[in-house]
UniProtKB/TrEMBL annotation:
<dbReference type="Pfam" id="PF08125">
    <property type="entry name" value="Mannitol_dh_C"/>
</dbReference>
<dbReference type="InterPro" id="IPR008927">
    <property type="entry name" value="6-PGluconate_DH-like_C_sf"/>
</dbReference>
<keyword id="KW-0560">Oxidoreductase</keyword>
<dbReference type="GO" id="GO:0016616">
    <property type="term" value="F:oxidoreductase activity, acting on the CH-OH group of donors, NAD or NADP as acceptor"/>
</dbReference>
<feature type="domain" description="Mannitol dehydrogenase N-terminal">
    <location>
        <begin position="28"/>
        <end position="276"/>
    </location>
</feature>
<dbReference type="Pfam" id="PF01232">
    <property type="entry name" value="Mannitol_dh"/>
</dbReference>
<feature type="domain" description="Mannitol dehydrogenase C-terminal">
    <location>
        <begin position="285"/>
        <end position="473"/>
    </location>
</feature>
<dbReference type="InterPro" id="IPR013131">
    <property type="entry name" value="Mannitol_DH_N"/>
</dbReference>
<dbReference type="InterPro" id="IPR013118">
    <property type="entry name" value="Mannitol_DH_C"/>
</dbReference>
<dbReference type="InterPro" id="IPR000669">
    <property type="entry name" value="Mannitol_DH"/>
</dbReference>
<protein>
    <submittedName>
        <fullName>Mannitol 2-dehydrogenase</fullName>
    </submittedName>
</protein>
<dbReference type="InterPro" id="IPR013328">
    <property type="entry name" value="6PGD_dom2"/>
</dbReference>
<dbReference type="InterPro" id="IPR050988">
    <property type="entry name" value="Mannitol_DH/Oxidoreductase"/>
</dbReference>
<dbReference type="InterPro" id="IPR036291">
    <property type="entry name" value="NAD(P)-bd_dom_sf"/>
</dbReference>
């Protein structure tokens, strides 16, 4: 059955569906970056509110700023912007059709349609999921990257921007002129201080164009920090077939784990839905929650995923099922990461490690190592290297973190230990691969990537530890290095003395 408004009443028995009148919904949010995560997370929370008869004037209008967003728009518009969510737990699965999105702005050069939609008074929140690397932030200094060609283009062509942020600035310029008022900019990406970073990018870009406008945005718009969490794999043919087996013809279904969390500051200049009624946590201390999640879950993904690629382990759950890789996660998390994580209400860091261990181990979630390893040049500076700096400053263990970085350098060489090719998996893959090949003989070459490691190449302890592990990985193999690190053989002492 083709998924559409007209077929909702005829969906198979057991499939949850919107109980509200979708024709009565009106827009309140533009969301830029309508990927799987957004539809399984933010869109779902709003849908649950609507199921309770609330937030009917906060429906989502989808948007994108890149040509590749066109395909997703076409798929969703063809099915009335409905999405089938398939929740996969170790015990089974459940299915729900989510209807909180009602439109999707056309994708076009210059983003005129997006600017026009964000300029309208009914839009009170502009939210984004544009990936960790999408905010034009220097990975070492965290400063706004004003010299980036996209930012320079938007600074010089404010009415026809390339970026989501340029479009936001253009819309705010129009709202200011028309007296429509500000909107809230809501980042839903995995960045510490994501609201602060969004403010930095939007205000920084506005300042390159018009300092008075930049001041107005900074004073009137709000940019709440938040933490989002749900493991959402990529959609492939198998998931589309799974939806069809359930009796639903959905060209863009989404699978997800049986866990969600959303923590945010209550800082919305133009109002917001009552998300607290469906489990969202509002707090003035988002930082503690996001620190726990980013340092244990996001960094934890990087702990295992490059090792998994080298060892031909296809999914995150298969990594956790591998005795050495699963042990690697627990040892690095407990010894190298937990010392830099504080407890949050209801959760101690060691308990959170166990929670993440169990979530990563869910065999029903086909989350590929390739997906999680993507864009390491943003994820390692964002998630792992801050922990290295913390360890250096505090004198806490960093053996495991250095091994993680050595595994990334080995992965970027582009060949698994079974001889199969690792296809390009980073925006700067060619550069990474060239340096990784050089680092096989001279490990320091990897750390000399200034835009990634900054001053860490000059730290003698970290550099020496990294070099030991990379030499061992190349000379004896990944499993030998993992065995040495996890202390399961006499190789451990030899690795430390090598």
């Amino acid at each position: 059955m083709k998924l559409a408004n007209t077929t909702l009443a005829d969906l198979p028995k057991g499939v949850l569906r919107p109980e509200y009148d979708r024709a009565a919904l009106s827009a309140g949010i533009v969301h830029i970056g309508v990927g799987n995560f957004h539809r399984a997370h933010q869109s779902w929370y709003l849908h649950r509110l609507m199921q309770q008869g609330e937030a009917l004037d906060w429906a989502i209008v989808g948007a994108g700023v890149r040509a590749y967003d066109t395909e997703m728009r076409e798929r969703l518009v063809a099915q009335d912007c409905l999405t089938t969510l398939i929740e996969l737990s170790p015990e089974g699965q459940s299915t729900e059709v989510v209807g909180s999105m009602i439109d999707y702005v056309p994708i076009e050069d210059g983003n005129g349609a997006l600017i026009a939609r964000m300029s309208q008074s009914d839009i009170r929140i502009v939210a984004l999921t544009v990936t960790e690397s999408g905010y034009y932030v220097d990975p070492v200094t965290n400063a706004f990257h004003t010299a980036h060609p996209d930012i320079q283009h938007d600074a010089q062509h404010p009415d026809t921007p390339r970026t989501a942020f340029g479009a936001m600035v253009a819309a705010l310029r129009q709202r200011r002129a028309a007296g429509t008022g500000p909107f809230t900019g809501q980042s839903c990406d995995n960045l510490q201080g994501n609201g602060d970073i969004l403010r930095q990018t939007v205000v920084g870009l506005a300042r390159l164009q018009d300092s008075d406008l930049a001041d107005w945005i900074d004073e009137n718009c709000s940019f709440p920090n938040s933490m989002v969490d749900c493991i959402v794999p990529s959609t492939g043919p198998d998931l589309i077939e799974k939806a069809q087996a359930l009796g639903i013809d959905d060209t863009a279904p989404v699978s997800h784990e049986n866990f969600r969390q959303w923590v945010m500051e209550d800082d919305f200049c133009a109002g917001r839905p009552a998300w607290e009624n469906v489990g969202v946590t509002f707090t003035n201390d988002v930082h503690a929650f996001e620190t726990m999640k980013i340092r244990i879950l996001n960094a934890g993904h990087q702990v295992i995923t490059n090792v998994g690629e080298v060892l031909s382990l296809e999914t995150i759950s298969s990594c956790m099922d591998h005795a050495l890789v699963g042990a690697l996660f627990r040892k690095v998390a407990l010894e190298d990461i937990v010392p830099h994580v504080d407890a949050v209400p209801g959760m101690a860091p060691t308990d959170y490690v166990q929670l993440i261990h169990d979530r990563f181990s869910n065999p029903k979630i086909h989350d590929t190592t390739r997906r999680v390893a993507f864009d390491g040049s943003a994820r390692h500076p964002g998630f792992v290297l801050p922990l290295v700096r913390k360890a250096i400053a505090a004198g806490t263990p960093l053996e495991g973190l250095a091994l993680v970085e050595a595994a990334w350098a080995r992965m970027c060489q582009g060949e698994r230990e079974d001889g199969s090719e690792i296809l390009p998996n980073d925006p700067i893959w060619d550069k990474l691969q060239a340096v990784a090949k050089e680092a096989r003989a001279r490990p320091q070459a990897w750390l000399e990537q200034q835009s990634i490691y900054g001053e860490l190449a000059q730290n003698a302890k970290f550099s020496a530890t990294f070099e030991r592990w990379l030499h061992m990985i190349w000379n004896e193999g990944m499993e030998a290095a993992l065995t040495a690190y996890c202390g399961a053989s006499p190789n451990a002492e030899r690795a430390r003395e090598a």
